């Protein structure tokens, strides 16, 4: 699916989502706990979490100081978040989605988000036209933000000589190495090598089934 990202996504830290949503109607759900929604920064995080977790047609609402905020579902990666705790694979794929949405500059960018899992939800399916329009393989994003010590990783996709210039021109630099911390990207993701080498086992956890790939327009 082609998705647009705007402001820089936030790291979730140790936040657990169990029981945060209750049903209001078949389409609109209500946040049970509104602490995260009290700030603009927290609402921005909720926007991406709900977009990643719930499918199109579902939304989550919260009212803060008399103002109602509605967060729309899109990808449907953890649709059962509404009625039970997320499973470990759901936590990992939701984390991958948040990482893939992260934008260092906070500017609107369109990306093509994909998965190799044949059972992936409709939100990750791509058309032939989308694949032609977004041929540049930026990289794979994975990790887990829903643990006491959150982790996030990125593997590198296409590596032509002009890769850095191309990504910078598209305002997508979260897979480029930081000038400050060696081995980490500019968005603080640990760089684990080339995706083609399948570096998906990290610290004893196999993330193979919960990686999300980001494709971009070509040079």
Question: What are the main properties of this structure?
Answer:
219 residues; alpha+beta; six-stranded mixed β-sheet; four-stranded mixed β-sheet; 12 strands; 19% helix
Characterise the protein shown here.
- This protein has 2 domains: 8-82, no CATH class; 88-216, no CATH class.
- 19% of the residues lie in helices and 26% in strands.
- It is built from 4 helices and 12 strands; from the N terminus they run E-E-E-H-E-E-H-E-H-E-E-H-E-E-E-E.
- 36% of the residues are buried.
- The model is unreliable at 10-24 (pLDDT under 50).
Question: Which regions have little confidence, pLDDT < 50, spanning 5+ residues?
Answer: 10-24
Structural class: alpha+beta
The total of helices stands at: 4
Question: How much is the average pLDDT?
Answer: 86
Helix content: 10-25%
Spatially, the strands of the biggest sheet line up as: 1-6-12-7-8-9
């Amino acid at each position: 699916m082609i998705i647009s990202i705007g402001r820089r996504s936030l790291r979730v830290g140790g936040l657990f989502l169990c029981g945060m949503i209750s049903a209001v109607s078949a389409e609109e759900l209500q946040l049970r706990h509104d602490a995260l929604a009290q700030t603009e920064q927290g609402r921005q995080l909720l926007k991406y979490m709900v977009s990643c977790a719930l499918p199109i047609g579902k939304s989550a609402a919260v009212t803060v100081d008399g103002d109602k905020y509605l967060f729309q579902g899109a990808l449907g990666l953890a649709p059962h978040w509404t009625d039970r705790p997320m499973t470990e694979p759901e936590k990992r794929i939701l984390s991958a989605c948040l990482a893939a949405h992260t934008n260092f500059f906070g500017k609107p960018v369109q990306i093509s988000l994909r998965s190799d899992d044949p059972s992936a939800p409709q939100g990750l399916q791509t058309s032939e036209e989308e694949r032609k329009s977004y041929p540049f393989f930026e990289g794979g994003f994975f990790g887990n933000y829903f643990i006491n010590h959150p982790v996030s990783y990125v593997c590198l996709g296409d590596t032509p000589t002009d890769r850095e210039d191309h990504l910078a021109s598209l305002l997508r630099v979260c897979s480029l190495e930081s000038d400050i911390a060696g081995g980490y990207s500019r968005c603080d993701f640990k760089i684990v090598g080339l995706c083609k080498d399948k570096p998906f086992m990290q610290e004893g956890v196999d993330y193979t089934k919960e990686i999300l790939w980001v494709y971009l327009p070509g040079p």
